Amino acid sequence: NSTAQARRTVQQLRLEASIERIKVSKASADLMSYCEEHARSDPLLMGIPTSENPF
Predict the structure, then answer these.
(1) Distance between CA atoms of residues 25 and 16, nearest Å
(2) Which residues contact 45 (CB under 8 A, 6 or more apart)?
(3) Any domain includes 21
(4) Where in this chain does the entry annotate a coiled-coil region (predicted)?
(5) Which pLDDT value is given to residue 37?
(6) 48 inside domain
(7) Strand ranges (DSSP E) for 1-55?
(8) Number of structural domains in the chain
(9) How does DSSP classify residue 23?
(10) Which domain covers residue 30, as residue numbers?
(11) What is the pTM of this model?
């Protein structure tokens, strides 16, 4: 039904419009900080010791 589809679209657009926006520069700085803080526990960056690798 096109009315139901339109309602879902409007609901989704309202949800997206209510999301708090931040500048890309702040978002990227926050992401870099998070990555730097958690780099030690990231197996893709640090690798997995052979003794703990199940493969």
Answers:
(1) 20
(2) 39
(3) yes
(4) none
(5) 94
(6) no
(7) none
(8) 1
(9) -
(10) 2-40
(11) 0.55
